[in-house]
Prior knowledge:
Elements: E1 6-14, E2 21-30, E3 34-40, H1 46-54, E4 61-66, E5 69-72, E6 84-87, H2 99-104, H3 114-127, H4 144-157, E7 162-166, H5 177-189, E8 193-197, H6 201-207, E9 210-215, E10 218-224, H7 230-238, H8 251-262, E11 269-278, E12 281-291, E13 296-300, H9 307-314, E14 322-327, E15 330-331, H10 336-341, E16 344-347, H11 362-366, H12 371-374, H13 382-395, H14 411-422, E17 429-433, H15 441-456, E18 460-465, H16 468-474, E19 477-482, E20 485-486, E21 490-491, H17 497-504
Parallel strand pairs: 3-8, 3-9, 6-7, 7-8, 13-18, 13-19, 16-17, 17-18
Antiparallel strand pairs: 1-2, 1-4, 4-5, 9-10, 11-12, 11-14, 14-15, 19-20, 19-21
Helix pairs in contact: 3-4
Amino acid sequence: MADASAILKGVGHTWPTTGVQVCRNASLRLMPGSVHALVGENGAGKTTLGHILAGVLRPDSGRLLTGFGDFNLAKRNPGFLPGVGLVRQRSVWPPNLTAWEAAVLGRSERPRRRIEAVNLFQRTAEQWGLSGVDPHARAAGMDAAGRQRAELTAALMFKPSILILDEPASAWEEGRADEFFNLLKTLKTSGHTVLLITHRLRDVFRIADTVTVMRQGFVVGTHEIDSVELETISTEIFGDWNPYEHHRDTTESDSGIQRINQSIEPPRLSLAGVELEDSGRKVLSEMTFDLNSGEILGITGLKEEGLGVLEDVVSGNVKPDSGRMMLDGRLVSSDPITMREKGLRYVPSDKTGRGASLESTLAENLILLESRRLTRRGLLPPSTIHRWTENRRREGDIEGKTGQTLNELSGGNIQKVILQRELTQDARLIVVADPTWGLDEKSRQRIHGQLRSAAGKGAAILLLASDLDEAMELSDRMAVLSGGRLSEILNTSSWDREAAMRLIADNLETV
Length: 511
């Protein structure tokens, strides 16, 4: 193996239900004590290749050589390969299990006694500097960030020599990036091999030693990070389209603000004195703001510092203890049915739980809000569904077939399905939480354009962003939520990034 920790050769895989070919003779060579980044557009085959390397997905063809042996992957039953750990982009932990229970589920080498398993979980979290990981927390009660940290702890419990991280940085929000990168550096120093599957090229150039680009199932290039330019990687991912040449045109949003200031209409969404307490701690305190038609109001911060709770309140999923919420100047009760009836369009942070039905088809997920309008005399013919879905699929640049279930799509394409469903032309109020989570740069720019276009047509958009850069790029006005309290709301051009970072991290030591 010439010092390589793993050599993956000739991987091919086609989804049997749809005939979509997601890996085409793909190969990787991974070296010990290094971070190897795997990048590409959504649907390029990155996650599929990572799952094949881990052993949890059996390909049509492929061979893997590691220190544990030579494996014909096409003839092996699915199950974790020895010495390989995987942290998935989409969790598969049963919701009713605690973190330590899920960590040892199905492991032949697991500790025999409960106390031993709990102690091993806790020691592993402490050893690798993973803060805020509770072995007794149930999977259903964790947010995405907490669950991914817990799953990383679980993977490290069994001392893998190769660790596959599928879009992990989405769990390390602003204020926690250093924790993530310090962990990767420690893993490298200790001799681990890390396969980092990501769409965030800035992370690649910050931490990776080697980068491999996939496109339409093929490996199109592998480079040492010190000898390649960003433009080269971008061209291999996107072709001639260079996402880094795109900059925000603020003319439309500035005129939008001017129209708002001149308007005598009531705010589209208004919160006044909203408070919520959980386990004796105020998770929202005196939450007050107005969101006007034609603007994007960005609120940024850590999910567990109030951002996730605010999302629950404005989407109607949690009723606050006090305060009031108004739509178009009228008091509204906080429940999801009422909010939907009043015109709410909602892109949740939990994309694969609250946002989509993974066992349903692409068509079924897209048509949810339109079935009544498309029905004729009580019937919704399959031909109508197919034609309408195909049009929306092409508009949203979604890779997949109308009859394909969402659990066969990449995380980025699932996100595109949700956005395409919710960003309807008649949308009046749109609540979006991390709208470009899991999306490549080309798709990110496309979604930003759609949101600005919706605001230009009069929609009021509440952007809840754990990514500070996204909030600053997309918002007309912005505030920081920390410790359940909202900062002053300012025009985004008035914010200093470092000042916003300090506010976000202000309560981090208590998290």
